[in-house]
Design a protein that fits this description.
single chain; alpha+beta; Calcium-transporting ATPase, cytoplasmic transduction domain A; seven-stranded mixed sheet; six-stranded antiparallel sheet; 24 helices; elongated; membrane
Protein backbone atom coordinates (compact mmCIF):
# COMPACT_ATOMS: atom_id res chain seq x y z
CA UNK A 1 0.00 0.00 0.00
CA UNK A 2 2.78 2.42 0.91
CA UNK A 3 4.63 1.58 -2.31
CA UNK A 4 1.49 2.20 -4.33
CA UNK A 5 0.99 5.60 -2.71
CA UNK A 6 4.63 6.58 -3.33
CA UNK A 7 4.30 5.61 -6.99
CA UNK A 8 1.14 7.66 -7.37
CA UNK A 9 2.77 10.62 -5.67
CA UNK A 10 5.81 10.42 -7.95
CA UNK A 11 3.64 10.27 -11.07
CA UNK A 12 1.60 13.20 -9.88
CA UNK A 13 4.72 15.26 -9.16
CA UNK A 14 6.01 14.64 -12.67
CA UNK A 15 2.67 15.67 -14.17
CA UNK A 16 2.49 18.93 -12.24
CA UNK A 17 6.19 19.77 -12.28
CA UNK A 18 5.99 22.25 -15.16
CA UNK A 19 3.10 24.29 -13.80
CA UNK A 20 2.86 24.29 -10.01
CA UNK A 21 5.30 25.55 -7.43
CA UNK A 22 7.34 23.08 -5.37
CA UNK A 23 5.12 23.63 -2.31
CA UNK A 24 1.93 23.03 -4.29
CA UNK A 25 3.32 19.88 -5.89
CA UNK A 26 4.35 18.43 -2.54
CA UNK A 27 1.02 19.31 -0.95
CA UNK A 28 -1.05 17.61 -3.68
CA UNK A 29 1.22 14.55 -3.76
CA UNK A 30 1.07 14.16 0.03
CA UNK A 31 -2.71 14.59 0.07
CA UNK A 32 -3.29 12.01 -2.66
CA UNK A 33 -0.81 9.56 -1.16
CA UNK A 34 -2.29 9.87 2.35
CA UNK A 35 -5.80 9.44 0.94
CA UNK A 36 -4.80 6.18 -0.77
CA UNK A 37 -3.07 4.83 2.35
CA UNK A 38 -6.00 5.82 4.57
CA UNK A 39 -8.49 4.26 2.17
CA UNK A 40 -6.59 0.96 2.33
CA UNK A 41 -6.34 1.05 6.15
CA UNK A 42 -10.06 1.85 6.43
CA UNK A 43 -10.95 -1.20 4.33
CA UNK A 44 -8.66 -3.37 6.50
CA UNK A 45 -10.18 -1.97 9.71
CA UNK A 46 -13.76 -2.48 8.55
CA UNK A 47 -12.94 -6.02 7.44
CA UNK A 48 -11.55 -6.83 10.89
CA UNK A 49 -14.67 -5.44 12.59
CA UNK A 50 -17.27 -6.92 10.28
CA UNK A 51 -15.64 -10.22 9.24
CA UNK A 52 -13.12 -10.97 11.99
CA UNK A 53 -13.63 -12.48 15.45
CA UNK A 54 -14.95 -10.19 18.21
CA UNK A 55 -11.57 -10.00 19.94
CA UNK A 56 -10.14 -8.23 16.84
CA UNK A 57 -12.74 -5.43 16.97
CA UNK A 58 -10.43 -3.18 19.00
CA UNK A 59 -7.65 -3.79 16.49
CA UNK A 60 -10.01 -2.81 13.69
CA UNK A 61 -11.02 0.40 15.48
CA UNK A 62 -7.34 1.20 16.08
CA UNK A 63 -6.64 0.64 12.37
CA UNK A 64 -9.50 2.97 11.38
CA UNK A 65 -8.31 5.55 13.90
CA UNK A 66 -4.83 5.39 12.34
CA UNK A 67 -6.41 5.79 8.87
CA UNK A 68 -8.33 8.86 10.04
CA UNK A 69 -5.21 10.38 11.58
CA UNK A 70 -3.08 9.79 8.47
CA UNK A 71 -5.55 11.32 6.03
CA UNK A 72 -6.52 14.22 8.30
CA UNK A 73 -2.98 15.15 9.34
CA UNK A 74 -2.09 17.11 6.14
CA UNK A 75 -5.34 19.05 6.43
CA UNK A 76 -4.80 19.70 10.14
CA UNK A 77 -1.26 20.96 9.50
CA UNK A 78 -2.44 23.14 6.60
CA UNK A 79 -5.31 24.49 8.67
CA UNK A 80 -2.96 25.28 11.55
CA UNK A 81 -0.76 27.20 9.09
CA UNK A 82 -3.77 29.39 8.36
CA UNK A 83 -3.73 30.63 11.96
CA UNK A 84 -0.64 32.75 11.27
CA UNK A 85 -0.85 33.20 7.49
CA UNK A 86 -3.41 34.84 5.23
CA UNK A 87 -3.61 31.90 2.80
CA UNK A 88 -7.35 31.49 2.14
CA UNK A 89 -6.91 27.81 1.20
CA UNK A 90 -5.37 27.10 4.61
CA UNK A 91 -8.18 28.99 6.32
CA UNK A 92 -10.72 26.93 4.37
CA UNK A 93 -9.02 23.71 5.50
CA UNK A 94 -9.49 24.76 9.13
CA UNK A 95 -13.17 23.83 8.82
CA UNK A 96 -12.39 20.37 7.42
CA UNK A 97 -9.71 19.83 10.10
CA UNK A 98 -12.15 20.71 12.88
CA UNK A 99 -14.78 18.41 11.37
CA UNK A 100 -12.32 15.50 11.21
CA UNK A 101 -11.13 16.08 14.81
CA UNK A 102 -14.73 16.29 16.03
CA UNK A 103 -15.61 13.03 14.26
CA UNK A 104 -12.57 11.30 15.78
CA UNK A 105 -13.44 12.60 19.25
CA UNK A 106 -16.95 11.17 18.91
CA UNK A 107 -15.57 7.80 17.75
CA UNK A 108 -16.94 8.09 14.21
CA UNK A 109 -13.75 6.98 12.46
CA UNK A 110 -15.53 6.24 9.17
CA UNK A 111 -16.63 9.87 8.86
CA UNK A 112 -13.26 11.10 10.15
CA UNK A 113 -11.55 9.17 7.35
CA UNK A 114 -13.92 9.56 4.42
CA UNK A 115 -14.50 13.32 4.78
CA UNK A 116 -10.79 14.21 4.34
CA UNK A 117 -10.43 11.56 1.61
CA UNK A 118 -13.27 13.11 -0.39
CA UNK A 119 -11.84 16.59 0.18
CA UNK A 120 -8.39 15.44 -1.02
CA UNK A 121 -9.87 13.91 -4.16
CA UNK A 122 -11.82 17.13 -4.75
CA UNK A 123 -8.59 19.14 -4.48
CA UNK A 124 -6.92 16.80 -6.96
CA UNK A 125 -9.76 17.14 -9.50
CA UNK A 126 -9.74 20.89 -8.95
CA UNK A 127 -6.03 21.09 -9.78
CA UNK A 128 -6.49 18.84 -12.81
CA UNK A 129 -9.21 21.17 -14.09
CA UNK A 130 -7.02 24.24 -13.58
CA UNK A 131 -4.14 22.49 -15.29
CA UNK A 132 -6.37 21.85 -18.28
CA UNK A 133 -6.94 25.59 -18.52
CA UNK A 134 -3.20 26.17 -18.26
CA UNK A 135 -2.40 23.82 -21.15
CA UNK A 136 -2.22 26.70 -23.65
CA UNK A 137 0.15 28.58 -21.36
CA UNK A 138 2.29 25.48 -20.86
CA UNK A 139 2.69 25.40 -24.64
CA UNK A 140 5.16 28.28 -24.38
CA UNK A 141 7.44 26.09 -22.29
CA UNK A 142 7.30 23.34 -24.91
CA UNK A 143 8.38 25.84 -27.59
CA UNK A 144 11.85 26.06 -26.08
CA UNK A 145 14.48 24.40 -28.31
CA UNK A 146 16.30 21.53 -26.59
CA UNK A 147 19.52 22.08 -28.49
CA UNK A 148 21.16 24.52 -30.87
CA UNK A 149 23.56 23.72 -33.71
CA UNK A 150 26.39 26.21 -33.17
CA UNK A 151 28.62 26.87 -36.18
CA UNK A 152 32.31 26.82 -35.20
CA UNK A 153 35.64 26.61 -37.04
CA UNK A 154 35.41 22.82 -36.66
CA UNK A 155 31.88 22.57 -38.02
CA UNK A 156 28.50 22.28 -36.32
CA UNK A 157 28.37 21.51 -32.59
CA UNK A 158 25.20 20.71 -30.60
CA UNK A 159 24.99 22.99 -27.55
CA UNK A 160 22.48 24.07 -24.92
CA UNK A 161 20.53 27.09 -26.27
CA UNK A 162 21.06 28.89 -22.95
CA UNK A 163 24.82 28.83 -23.57
CA UNK A 164 24.56 30.87 -26.78
CA UNK A 165 25.99 34.38 -26.81
CA UNK A 166 25.36 37.43 -28.97
CA UNK A 167 27.14 37.13 -32.31
CA UNK A 168 27.13 33.31 -32.39
CA UNK A 169 26.02 31.73 -35.68
CA UNK A 170 23.55 28.84 -35.41
CA UNK A 171 22.26 26.53 -38.13
CA UNK A 172 18.52 25.81 -38.18
CA UNK A 173 17.21 23.03 -40.41
CA UNK A 174 13.62 22.44 -41.59
CA UNK A 175 11.45 21.24 -38.70
CA UNK A 176 13.76 22.68 -36.02
CA UNK A 177 12.63 25.14 -33.35
CA UNK A 178 14.61 28.38 -33.45
CA UNK A 179 16.88 28.41 -30.37
CA UNK A 180 17.40 32.19 -30.06
CA UNK A 181 16.33 35.62 -31.29
CA UNK A 182 18.51 36.85 -34.12
CA UNK A 183 18.96 37.85 -37.75
CA UNK A 184 19.05 35.56 -40.78
CA UNK A 185 22.49 35.84 -42.36
CA UNK A 186 22.24 33.03 -44.91
CA UNK A 187 19.44 31.12 -46.62
CA UNK A 188 15.72 31.48 -47.12
CA UNK A 189 12.84 29.71 -45.39
CA UNK A 190 9.27 29.94 -44.17
CA UNK A 191 8.79 30.43 -40.44
CA UNK A 192 5.75 29.35 -38.38
CA UNK A 193 5.16 32.04 -35.73
CA UNK A 194 1.63 30.93 -34.80
CA UNK A 195 2.42 29.93 -31.21
CA UNK A 196 4.01 33.34 -30.61
CA UNK A 197 1.70 35.70 -32.51
CA UNK A 198 -1.49 33.67 -32.89
CA UNK A 199 -1.36 34.25 -36.67
CA UNK A 200 -1.77 31.01 -38.60
CA UNK A 201 -0.11 32.15 -41.87
CA UNK A 202 3.66 31.43 -41.91
CA UNK A 203 6.04 34.26 -42.83
CA UNK A 204 8.94 34.21 -45.28
CA UNK A 205 12.43 34.83 -43.90
CA UNK A 206 15.55 35.69 -45.86
CA UNK A 207 18.82 37.53 -45.25
CA UNK A 208 18.33 40.50 -42.96
CA UNK A 209 15.02 39.29 -41.49
CA UNK A 210 14.60 39.11 -37.73
CA UNK A 211 13.45 35.77 -36.31
CA UNK A 212 12.56 34.71 -32.79
CA UNK A 213 13.15 31.80 -30.44
CA UNK A 214 10.25 29.35 -30.22
CA UNK A 215 9.20 29.72 -33.86
CA UNK A 216 9.45 26.70 -36.16
CA UNK A 217 11.55 26.62 -39.35
CA UNK A 218 9.38 24.96 -42.00
CA UNK A 219 11.15 24.74 -45.36
CA UNK A 220 14.78 25.76 -45.92
CA UNK A 221 18.01 25.64 -43.93
CA UNK A 222 19.06 29.02 -42.56
CA UNK A 223 21.88 30.48 -40.53
CA UNK A 224 21.07 32.95 -37.76
CA UNK A 225 23.31 35.45 -36.01
CA UNK A 226 22.25 35.30 -32.35
CA UNK A 227 21.07 38.53 -30.74
CA UNK A 228 19.42 37.23 -27.55
CA UNK A 229 19.41 33.78 -25.97
CA UNK A 230 17.93 32.04 -22.93
CA UNK A 231 15.61 34.09 -20.74
CA UNK A 232 16.53 37.28 -22.63
CA UNK A 233 14.68 36.13 -25.77
CA UNK A 234 11.16 37.23 -26.59
CA UNK A 235 9.96 33.73 -25.63
CA UNK A 236 11.79 33.94 -22.29
CA UNK A 237 10.23 37.31 -21.57
CA UNK A 238 6.81 35.92 -22.48
CA UNK A 239 7.19 33.02 -20.05
CA UNK A 240 8.33 35.36 -17.30
CA UNK A 241 5.44 37.77 -17.81
CA UNK A 242 2.86 35.00 -18.07
CA UNK A 243 4.07 33.56 -14.77
CA UNK A 244 3.75 36.99 -13.19
CA UNK A 245 0.25 37.42 -14.64
CA UNK A 246 -0.89 34.07 -13.22
CA UNK A 247 0.34 35.06 -9.76
CA UNK A 248 -1.21 38.55 -9.93
CA UNK A 249 -4.56 39.15 -8.28
CA UNK A 250 -7.58 41.00 -9.56
CA UNK A 251 -9.54 43.42 -7.35
CA UNK A 252 -12.24 40.74 -6.98
CA UNK A 253 -9.68 38.16 -5.81
CA UNK A 254 -8.23 40.61 -3.29
CA UNK A 255 -11.69 41.34 -1.93
CA UNK A 256 -12.41 37.60 -1.59
CA UNK A 257 -9.21 37.04 0.37
CA UNK A 258 -9.96 40.02 2.60
CA UNK A 259 -13.42 38.76 3.64
CA UNK A 260 -12.68 35.03 3.86
CA UNK A 261 -10.84 35.70 7.14
CA UNK A 262 -14.19 36.62 8.72
CA UNK A 263 -15.93 33.62 7.19
CA UNK A 264 -14.28 30.85 9.26
CA UNK A 265 -15.12 32.37 12.68
CA UNK A 266 -18.70 32.95 11.51
CA UNK A 267 -19.08 29.29 10.49
CA UNK A 268 -17.64 28.16 13.83
CA UNK A 269 -20.19 30.29 15.66
CA UNK A 270 -23.02 28.77 13.59
CA UNK A 271 -21.77 25.21 14.20
CA UNK A 272 -21.42 25.87 17.94
CA UNK A 273 -24.93 27.33 18.10
CA UNK A 274 -26.41 24.31 16.28
CA UNK A 275 -24.54 21.91 18.57
CA UNK A 276 -25.76 23.80 21.64
CA UNK A 277 -29.40 23.82 20.48
CA UNK A 278 -29.65 20.30 19.03
CA UNK A 279 -27.04 18.38 21.05
CA UNK A 280 -26.27 16.57 17.77
CA UNK A 281 -22.51 16.50 16.95
CA UNK A 282 -23.13 15.13 13.46
CA UNK A 283 -25.00 18.31 12.48
CA UNK A 284 -22.15 20.52 13.67
CA UNK A 285 -19.64 18.32 11.83
CA UNK A 286 -21.77 18.48 8.65
CA UNK A 287 -21.87 22.31 8.88
CA UNK A 288 -18.08 22.47 9.12
CA UNK A 289 -17.75 20.20 6.08
CA UNK A 290 -20.28 21.88 3.74
CA UNK A 291 -19.18 25.39 4.68
CA UNK A 292 -15.77 25.06 3.03
CA UNK A 293 -15.69 28.05 0.60
CA UNK A 294 -13.59 26.35 -2.08
CA UNK A 295 -15.93 27.34 -4.92
CA UNK A 296 -15.95 30.91 -3.63
CA UNK A 297 -12.15 30.99 -3.54
CA UNK A 298 -11.88 29.53 -7.07
CA UNK A 299 -14.41 31.98 -8.54
CA UNK A 300 -11.81 34.48 -9.74
CA UNK A 301 -8.60 32.44 -10.26
CA UNK A 302 -10.20 29.66 -12.34
CA UNK A 303 -11.81 32.10 -14.79
CA UNK A 304 -8.69 34.24 -14.96
CA UNK A 305 -6.44 31.26 -15.75
CA UNK A 306 -8.80 30.26 -18.57
CA UNK A 307 -8.74 33.85 -19.86
CA UNK A 308 -4.92 33.95 -19.83
CA UNK A 309 -4.82 30.62 -21.67
CA UNK A 310 -7.13 31.89 -24.42
CA UNK A 311 -5.19 35.16 -24.69
CA UNK A 312 -1.95 33.21 -25.03
CA UNK A 313 -3.47 31.17 -27.84
CA UNK A 314 -4.48 34.38 -29.62
CA UNK A 315 -0.97 35.80 -29.35
CA UNK A 316 -1.92 38.30 -26.64
CA UNK A 317 0.17 38.82 -23.50
CA UNK A 318 -1.64 40.22 -20.45
CA UNK A 319 0.98 41.40 -17.97
CA UNK A 320 -1.33 41.57 -14.95
CA UNK A 321 -4.72 39.92 -14.54
CA UNK A 322 -6.24 43.11 -13.10
CA UNK A 323 -6.19 44.60 -16.60
CA UNK A 324 -8.73 41.98 -17.72
CA UNK A 325 -11.30 43.59 -15.43
CA UNK A 326 -10.25 47.11 -16.47
CA UNK A 327 -10.47 46.20 -20.18
CA UNK A 328 -14.08 45.09 -19.74
CA UNK A 329 -15.05 48.66 -18.70
CA UNK A 330 -13.28 50.59 -21.49
CA UNK A 331 -15.37 53.49 -22.88
CA UNK A 332 -12.87 55.40 -25.06
CA UNK A 333 -10.30 53.95 -27.49
CA UNK A 334 -7.34 56.16 -28.45
CA UNK A 335 -5.43 54.69 -31.41
CA UNK A 336 -2.03 55.81 -32.60
CA UNK A 337 -1.83 56.09 -36.39
CA UNK A 338 1.58 54.96 -37.59
CA UNK A 339 2.12 51.25 -37.12
CA UNK A 340 -1.25 50.77 -35.42
CA UNK A 341 -4.04 51.58 -37.89
CA UNK A 342 -1.53 51.89 -40.74
CA UNK A 343 1.28 49.60 -41.77
CA UNK A 344 3.91 52.11 -40.63
CA UNK A 345 5.68 51.61 -43.93
CA UNK A 346 5.81 54.19 -46.72
CA UNK A 347 4.88 53.11 -50.24
CA UNK A 348 5.60 54.93 -53.48
CA UNK A 349 2.14 55.47 -54.96
CA UNK A 350 2.82 57.96 -57.74
CA UNK A 351 5.19 60.33 -59.54
CA UNK A 352 4.73 63.75 -61.14
CA UNK A 353 7.53 64.55 -63.64
CA UNK A 354 8.39 68.15 -64.48
CA UNK A 355 8.53 69.33 -68.09
CA UNK A 356 9.57 66.77 -70.69
CA UNK A 357 10.96 64.24 -68.20
CA UNK A 358 9.45 60.76 -67.95
CA UNK A 359 8.55 58.70 -64.88
CA UNK A 360 11.35 56.28 -65.80
CA UNK A 361 13.94 59.09 -65.64
CA UNK A 362 12.51 60.15 -62.30
CA UNK A 363 12.80 56.60 -60.93
CA UNK A 364 16.35 56.15 -62.27
CA UNK A 365 17.63 59.31 -60.60
CA UNK A 366 15.78 58.55 -57.31
CA UNK A 367 17.13 54.98 -57.28
CA UNK A 368 20.69 56.25 -57.72
CA UNK A 369 20.32 58.09 -54.39
CA UNK A 370 18.01 55.69 -52.52
CA UNK A 371 19.94 52.42 -52.78
CA UNK A 372 22.60 53.67 -50.35
CA UNK A 373 20.20 55.00 -47.68
CA UNK A 374 18.16 53.32 -44.93
CA UNK A 375 15.60 56.12 -44.66
CA UNK A 376 11.97 54.91 -45.05
CA UNK A 377 11.55 57.06 -48.18
CA UNK A 378 14.67 55.51 -49.73
CA UNK A 379 13.51 52.01 -48.85
CA UNK A 380 10.13 52.69 -50.48
CA UNK A 381 11.88 53.89 -53.67
CA UNK A 382 14.11 50.81 -53.83
CA UNK A 383 11.15 48.49 -53.21
CA UNK A 384 9.10 50.12 -55.97
CA UNK A 385 11.94 50.00 -58.51
CA UNK A 386 12.77 46.36 -57.72
CA UNK A 387 9.07 45.47 -57.97
CA UNK A 388 9.04 46.65 -61.59
CA UNK A 389 12.59 45.52 -62.41
CA UNK A 390 13.90 42.80 -60.04
CA UNK A 391 17.23 42.59 -61.91
CA UNK A 392 18.06 46.30 -61.53
CA UNK A 393 21.65 46.64 -60.33
CA UNK A 394 22.93 49.31 -57.99
CA UNK A 395 24.80 52.11 -59.78
CA UNK A 396 28.35 52.76 -58.62
CA UNK A 397 28.97 56.20 -57.20
CA UNK A 398 29.59 58.36 -54.15
CA UNK A 399 26.59 58.85 -51.85
CA UNK A 400 26.22 61.52 -49.17
CA UNK A 401 23.17 61.73 -46.89
CA UNK A 402 22.09 64.80 -44.94
CA UNK A 403 20.05 63.51 -42.00
CA UNK A 404 16.37 64.46 -42.21
CA UNK A 405 16.81 66.42 -45.45
CA UNK A 406 17.92 64.29 -48.38
CA UNK A 407 20.49 62.20 -50.25
CA UNK A 408 23.02 63.22 -52.91
CA UNK A 409 24.61 60.66 -55.27
CA UNK A 410 27.51 61.48 -57.59
CA UNK A 411 27.71 59.08 -60.55
CA UNK A 412 30.17 60.10 -63.24
CA UNK A 413 29.52 63.70 -64.32
CA UNK A 414 25.97 63.76 -62.91
CA UNK A 415 24.89 64.57 -59.33
CA UNK A 416 21.46 63.22 -58.34
CA UNK A 417 19.37 64.62 -55.51
CA UNK A 418 16.48 63.07 -53.56
CA UNK A 419 15.03 65.11 -50.71
CA UNK A 420 12.84 67.83 -49.30
CA UNK A 421 11.96 71.00 -51.23
CA UNK A 422 13.64 73.37 -48.76
CA UNK A 423 16.87 71.34 -48.87
CA UNK A 424 16.92 71.39 -52.68
CA UNK A 425 16.36 75.14 -52.58
CA UNK A 426 19.51 75.41 -50.46
CA UNK A 427 21.31 73.38 -53.15
CA UNK A 428 20.48 76.04 -55.74
CA UNK A 429 17.40 74.55 -57.43
CA UNK A 430 14.39 76.63 -58.40
CA UNK A 431 11.53 74.62 -56.92
CA UNK A 432 8.08 74.48 -58.54
CA UNK A 433 4.85 74.55 -56.53
CA UNK A 434 4.29 71.46 -54.42
CA UNK A 435 1.34 69.30 -55.56
CA UNK A 436 -1.72 68.80 -53.37
CA UNK A 437 -1.01 65.40 -51.83
CA UNK A 438 -2.11 64.05 -48.47
CA UNK A 439 1.11 62.11 -47.82
CA UNK A 440 4.83 62.82 -47.97
CA UNK A 441 6.17 64.51 -51.12
CA UNK A 442 9.86 64.06 -52.01
CA UNK A 443 11.58 65.84 -54.88
CA UNK A 444 14.08 64.48 -57.38
CA UNK A 445 16.64 66.75 -59.08
CA UNK A 446 19.81 66.46 -61.15
CA UNK A 447 22.90 68.59 -61.79
CA UNK A 448 25.69 68.37 -64.37
CA UNK A 449 29.07 68.99 -62.71
CA UNK A 450 30.62 70.10 -66.04
CA UNK A 451 28.14 72.88 -66.84
CA UNK A 452 26.58 73.34 -63.40
CA UNK A 453 23.20 73.01 -65.11
CA UNK A 454 20.49 72.20 -62.58
CA UNK A 455 17.02 70.86 -63.22
CA UNK A 456 14.19 69.53 -61.11
CA UNK A 457 13.01 66.21 -62.57
CA UNK A 458 9.79 65.98 -60.58
CA UNK A 459 8.41 64.68 -57.30
CA UNK A 460 7.52 61.31 -55.83
CA UNK A 461 4.29 60.77 -53.87
CA UNK A 462 4.26 58.46 -50.85
CA UNK A 463 1.60 57.15 -48.51
CA UNK A 464 1.26 54.93 -45.45
CA UNK A 465 -1.71 52.68 -46.22
CA UNK A 466 -4.34 51.89 -43.54
CA UNK A 467 -4.33 48.29 -42.39
CA UNK A 468 -6.98 46.15 -44.01
CA UNK A 469 -8.13 44.92 -40.61
CA UNK A 470 -8.26 48.37 -38.96
CA UNK A 471 -11.66 49.37 -40.39
CA UNK A 472 -13.22 46.05 -39.30
CA UNK A 473 -11.66 46.38 -35.85
CA UNK A 474 -13.10 49.87 -35.35
CA UNK A 475 -16.54 48.67 -36.49
CA UNK A 476 -16.33 45.88 -33.90
CA UNK A 477 -15.38 48.42 -31.23
CA UNK A 478 -18.58 50.31 -32.11
CA UNK A 479 -20.59 47.11 -31.72
CA UNK A 480 -19.06 46.71 -28.26
CA UNK A 481 -20.49 50.12 -27.29
CA UNK A 482 -17.16 51.94 -27.15
CA UNK A 483 -18.38 55.55 -26.97
CA UNK A 484 -15.46 57.28 -28.72
CA UNK A 485 -12.69 56.18 -31.05
CA UNK A 486 -9.92 58.76 -31.45
CA UNK A 487 -7.00 58.72 -33.89
CA UNK A 488 -3.87 60.22 -32.33
CA UNK A 489 -0.77 61.05 -34.42
CA UNK A 490 2.23 63.28 -34.73
CA UNK A 491 1.65 63.53 -38.49
CA UNK A 492 0.25 66.59 -40.21
CA UNK A 493 -3.52 66.96 -40.18
CA UNK A 494 -3.80 66.81 -43.99
CA UNK A 495 -2.14 63.36 -43.85
CA UNK A 496 -4.07 62.01 -40.86
CA UNK A 497 -7.55 63.37 -41.66
CA UNK A 498 -8.23 61.21 -44.76
CA UNK A 499 -7.11 58.08 -42.89
CA UNK A 500 -9.40 58.96 -39.98
CA UNK A 501 -12.32 59.49 -42.36
CA UNK A 502 -11.61 56.19 -44.11
CA UNK A 503 -11.57 54.33 -40.78
CA UNK A 504 -14.62 56.13 -39.38
CA UNK A 505 -13.12 57.47 -36.14
CA UNK A 506 -14.88 60.17 -34.09
CA UNK A 507 -11.95 62.59 -33.97
CA UNK A 508 -8.45 63.01 -35.38
CA UNK A 509 -5.85 64.65 -33.12
CA UNK A 510 -2.81 65.49 -35.26
CA UNK A 511 0.49 67.38 -35.00
CA UNK A 512 1.16 66.21 -31.43
CA UNK A 513 4.53 65.38 -29.89
CA UNK A 514 4.95 62.25 -27.68
CA UNK A 515 4.56 64.29 -24.48
CA UNK A 516 1.47 66.00 -25.93
CA UNK A 517 -0.10 62.59 -26.54
CA UNK A 518 -0.14 62.13 -22.78
CA UNK A 519 -2.16 65.33 -22.36
CA UNK A 520 -4.53 64.20 -25.11
CA UNK A 521 -5.23 60.96 -23.23
CA UNK A 522 -5.93 62.91 -20.04
CA UNK A 523 -8.31 65.16 -21.97
CA UNK A 524 -10.23 62.16 -23.32
CA UNK A 525 -10.64 60.76 -19.81
CA UNK A 526 -12.48 63.91 -18.69
CA UNK A 527 -14.10 64.88 -22.01
CA UNK A 528 -17.54 63.48 -21.18
CA UNK A 529 -20.27 65.67 -19.73
CA UNK A 530 -20.61 63.33 -16.73
CA UNK A 531 -18.66 63.89 -13.55
CA UNK A 532 -17.18 60.40 -13.62
CA UNK A 533 -13.89 60.05 -15.58
CA UNK A 534 -14.08 57.70 -18.55
CA UNK A 535 -11.98 54.56 -18.86
CA UNK A 536 -9.47 55.03 -21.70
CA UNK A 537 -7.79 52.35 -23.79
CA UNK A 538 -4.60 53.49 -25.57
CA UNK A 539 -3.19 51.47 -28.48
CA UNK A 540 0.22 52.15 -30.00
CA UNK A 541 3.40 50.53 -31.22
CA UNK A 542 4.93 50.76 -27.73
CA UNK A 543 8.07 52.60 -28.87
CA UNK A 544 7.35 56.32 -29.14
CA UNK A 545 3.97 56.02 -27.42
CA UNK A 546 5.24 55.04 -23.96
CA UNK A 547 3.89 58.15 -22.12
CA UNK A 548 0.42 57.72 -23.63
CA UNK A 549 0.37 53.95 -23.01
CA UNK A 550 1.29 54.53 -19.38
CA UNK A 551 -1.34 57.27 -18.93
CA UNK A 552 -4.21 55.14 -20.27
CA UNK A 553 -6.25 52.92 -17.96
CA UNK A 554 -5.11 50.10 -20.25
CA UNK A 555 -2.14 50.42 -22.61
CA UNK A 556 -1.92 48.01 -25.55
CA UNK A 557 1.21 47.63 -27.70
CA UNK A 558 0.75 46.15 -31.18
CA UNK A 559 3.16 44.02 -33.18
CA UNK A 560 5.58 43.83 -30.26
CA UNK A 561 7.53 40.73 -31.32
CA UNK A 562 11.09 41.35 -30.19
CA UNK A 563 10.41 44.83 -28.78
CA UNK A 564 11.57 45.09 -25.17
CA UNK A 565 10.31 48.69 -24.99
CA UNK A 566 6.80 47.64 -25.99
CA UNK A 567 6.71 44.84 -23.44
CA UNK A 568 7.80 47.22 -20.69
CA UNK A 569 5.51 50.16 -21.48
CA UNK A 570 2.23 48.35 -22.25
CA UNK A 571 -0.20 46.51 -19.97
CA UNK A 572 -1.33 44.20 -22.78
CA UNK A 573 0.88 43.19 -25.70
CA UNK A 574 -0.41 42.00 -29.09
CA UNK A 575 2.49 39.95 -30.41
CA UNK A 576 1.08 40.09 -33.95
CA UNK A 577 -0.17 43.08 -35.93
CA UNK A 578 -3.85 42.13 -36.36
CA UNK A 579 -5.90 44.94 -34.79
CA UNK A 580 -8.98 42.70 -34.69
CA UNK A 581 -7.45 40.97 -31.66
CA UNK A 582 -8.31 44.14 -29.73
CA UNK A 583 -12.14 43.84 -29.84
CA UNK A 584 -11.72 40.10 -29.37
CA UNK A 585 -9.86 40.75 -26.10
CA UNK A 586 -12.57 43.17 -24.94
CA UNK A 587 -15.21 40.51 -25.58
CA UNK A 588 -13.10 37.93 -23.76
CA UNK A 589 -12.60 40.25 -20.79
CA UNK A 590 -16.36 40.83 -20.52
CA UNK A 591 -17.09 37.11 -20.73
CA UNK A 592 -14.46 36.51 -18.04
CA UNK A 593 -15.99 39.11 -15.75
CA UNK A 594 -19.44 37.59 -16.28
CA UNK A 595 -18.07 34.13 -15.46
CA UNK A 596 -16.46 35.47 -12.28
CA UNK A 597 -19.75 37.04 -11.15
CA UNK A 598 -21.63 33.78 -11.87
CA UNK A 599 -18.96 31.81 -10.01
CA UNK A 600 -19.21 34.14 -7.01
CA UNK A 601 -22.98 33.82 -6.91
CA UNK A 602 -22.83 30.02 -6.91
CA UNK A 603 -19.84 29.99 -4.54
CA UNK A 604 -21.90 31.95 -2.00
CA UNK A 605 -25.38 30.44 -2.47
CA UNK A 606 -24.38 26.74 -2.45
CA UNK A 607 -22.49 26.79 0.91
CA UNK A 608 -25.24 28.87 2.54
CA UNK A 609 -27.90 26.44 1.32
CA UNK A 610 -25.85 23.48 2.51
CA UNK A 611 -25.37 25.08 5.93
CA UNK A 612 -29.16 25.42 6.30
CA UNK A 613 -29.71 21.80 5.26
CA UNK A 614 -26.95 20.57 7.57
CA UNK A 615 -28.41 22.58 10.47
CA UNK A 616 -31.75 20.87 9.88
CA UNK A 617 -30.10 17.44 9.90
CA UNK A 618 -31.00 16.77 6.26
CA UNK A 619 -27.36 16.62 5.09
CA UNK A 620 -25.04 14.21 6.92
CA UNK A 621 -21.25 14.78 7.16
CA UNK A 622 -20.54 12.21 4.43
CA UNK A 623 -23.21 13.59 2.13
CA UNK A 624 -21.91 17.08 2.86
CA UNK A 625 -18.38 16.04 1.90
CA UNK A 626 -19.71 15.01 -1.51
CA UNK A 627 -22.28 17.78 -2.02
CA UNK A 628 -20.01 20.67 -1.09
CA UNK A 629 -18.08 19.92 -4.30
CA UNK A 630 -21.18 20.85 -6.34
CA UNK A 631 -20.28 24.53 -6.15
CA UNK A 632 -16.66 23.81 -7.02
CA UNK A 633 -17.68 21.72 -10.02
CA UNK A 634 -19.94 24.46 -11.38
CA UNK A 635 -17.20 27.07 -10.93
CA UNK A 636 -14.61 24.95 -12.73
CA UNK A 637 -16.88 23.95 -15.61
CA UNK A 638 -18.19 27.50 -15.98
CA UNK A 639 -14.64 28.84 -16.16
CA UNK A 640 -13.62 26.09 -18.59
CA UNK A 641 -16.29 27.33 -21.04
CA UNK A 642 -14.04 30.33 -21.70
CA UNK A 643 -11.52 27.99 -23.32
CA UNK A 644 -13.93 27.58 -26.26
CA UNK A 645 -13.66 31.30 -27.06
CA UNK A 646 -12.73 32.01 -30.67
Amino acid sequence: MSSLAMTASAQLERRLDSVLTGTERRRIAVQLGSAMIAGGLLIVGLSQIWLGPPEQRSVGELTMGLAALIVALPIIVDGARGLWTSDPNSQSNQLVALAALAAMASGDFITATLVPVIVHLGHFLEERSLLGAQAAIEGLERLTARRAMLLTDDGEVAVDPDSLRGGDIVVVRPGDVLPADGEVVLGESTIDQSMMTGESIPVDASEGCLVFAGCVNLTGMIRIRVDKAGERTTLGRLREMLAAAEQSKTPVAKAIERYVGYYVPLVLIIAAAVLFLTRDPSRAIAILVVACPVGFLLAGPSAMIACLAVASRLGVLIKNSKFVEVLADVEVAVLDKTGTVTYGKLELIGAEPCGEHSVAVLHDSAFACAHGSLHPVSRAVVAAVHASDPTRERPLGEIHETAGKGVRATIGELVHYLGRADWLTQQGFAMPEEPAHEGPVVWVARADSRTDAREVLGCLLFADRPREDAHHAIEELRELDIERVVLLTGDRRRVAEPIGQHLGVDEVIADVLPEEKLEAVRHERHAAATQEPMSVLVVGDGVNDSPALTEGDVGVAMGAMGSDIAMQSADIVLMGADLRRLPAMIRLSRLTRRAIHQNLAVGIVVPLGMILLASAGIVTPLAGAVLHHVGESFVLFNSARLLRFR
